[in-house]
Amino acid sequence: MSIGHTLLGLLEAGPRHGYDLKRAFDEKFGHDRPLHYGQVYSTMARLLKNGLVEVDAVEPGEGPERKRYAITGAGVTDVERWLTSPEKPEPYLQSTLYTKVVLALLTGRSATDLLDTQRAEHLRLMRELTRRKKGGDLADQLICDHALFHLEADLRWLELTAARLDQLAETVRGAAR
Q1: Same domain, yes or no, for 72 and 123?
Q2: Chain-centroid distance, C-alpha 70
Q3: Cα–Cα distances in Å, from 173 out to 93, 101, 153, 165?
Q4: Secondary structure class of 40 (helix, strand, coil)
Q5: pTM as predicted
Q6: Among 60, 84, 108, which residue terminates a domain?
Q7: Domain that holds residue 151
Q8: Which tens digits make up the pLDDT trace of 44-85?
Q9: Is 71 helix (H, G, I), strand (E, B) or coil?
């Protein structure tokens, strides 16, 4: 996720202080990984430098002055371009799971145990996400569904790999010679 573009999109509703942006981000997108204040302010400094936001007002506060940021026309254009550009699908051609399976085979460790352990962890997380989904609002349900679909694909791969493990072991050991 592009934090800069997300903050710009939040600014389209109107000028906001950095702490308001953080709160809005965390509420809408940061359920599992809230932003740090430093991340917000460093991102806003970069957006300001790039002409995508401007300081709308500076207000005195307890401590440092509080800046209120507003999106510029260039910022609106940048968000529009980002929202209308498709994301590059990630094919995961060099996944960590595949690497671990091949290394287990190369080093004489049990690839079957590795696959079983990974399957159990995927199923544990899927149960957790399913519970979260049942109690969540629509946004949380959609986030959980996205994660669950990816985990289901991983499980299918784990099952396929387990079914082909002897063939893979033969191929890997033959290539190592």
Answers
A1: no
A2: 26
A3: 21, 12, 27, 12
A4: helix
A5: 0.69
A6: 84
A7: 96-176
A8: 999 999 999 999 998 887 777 789 999 999 999 999 999 988
A9: strand
